[in-house]
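tool_call predict_complex ligand=alpha-D-galactopyranose
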Amino acid sequence: MKVKAPGRINIIGEHTDYNDGYVLPFAVNRFVFLTIEDSEKFVFHSENMNETVEMERIEKLNKWTDYILGVIKAFEKRGYRVSPVKISVSSNLPMGAGLSSSAALEMATAYAISEYFGFHLPKLELVKIAREAEVEFVGVRCGIMDQFTSAFGKKDHAIFLDTMTLEYEYVPLKLKGYEINLVDSNVKHELSSSEYNKRRQECEEVLKVLGKRGFREVTKEDLKKLPGVLKKRAQHVLEENERVLRSVQALKEGDFETLGKLLFASHESLRDLYEVSCEETDFIVDFLKGKEGILGARMVGGGFGGGVIVLSKKSFFEKIKEELNDAYRDRFKIELTFHEIESADGVQKI
Ligand code: GLA
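tool_result ok
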């Protein structure tokens, strides 16, 4: 059996999904392709890594196989027996670019196992299994956005998701005269997962200091009661949530100028208040600001490298790509990679 699961790009709502907040991602037309078949023992093959791993029993190896193994573990924890299989994967999703190739691999695995063994679990349960793999097995305490989007993505739509209630709405993504590109900075700083977990801790600390059960109860008034760093973190979350709501409105009205301004504002907040951007992604965003036809840009995903989403009028970004790459190369001695992004449907059989 063959399945494919897409990556995702988040238009806006960064570092809100583990704080009961709002996000506005969409599934992208880049996928993890996965084949599952009978086998005597567990065999995992990655075409991209050019590697085959055989296993008698599940063991963490601190590499790509962990995403698959974490999913198998999560099924077993729920009482579903997963007998040995061969799982082969290939992908056209760039890794570390902020498009969530790991969530796509988890989602493809979860869906394939569920269908292959006849468990036929509902998609939301698969999302929880995929996320549990990342949190408990891989060890990154991520939110639910990436796996949710890989499962529920819908072509020509973004997903406005309330991560507290898991209620969601498909918002038409009618780009008409506009386009979305992703610039991959091609850097991934070492501290990305440790700092990610640290941000989560700080947000838990915010709730503790304020004596609140969840972020939805935190108000702007409360910010005054918080010490320095915690105040900055909380302010980002509150304002980012507002930006998501305004972005949903702007998208519905086809007001891309407003949407673009919100993207720039989100980046500033991630840089100054949440402190998860880095020199390289800041450089890209600063370069783009004020350029003709560029409406907005910001870092996407967890941060500390990865990608920058760019919203522009059609064909305007094309004109300055080279100039941006030259400036970036001069400054960091690294080449950028560019991806034009389109929306796609969620995980499915092929
Ligand atoms: C990573 C996580 C997501 C989310 C983003 C930041 O991509 O996997 O759950 O927290 O970072 O918005």
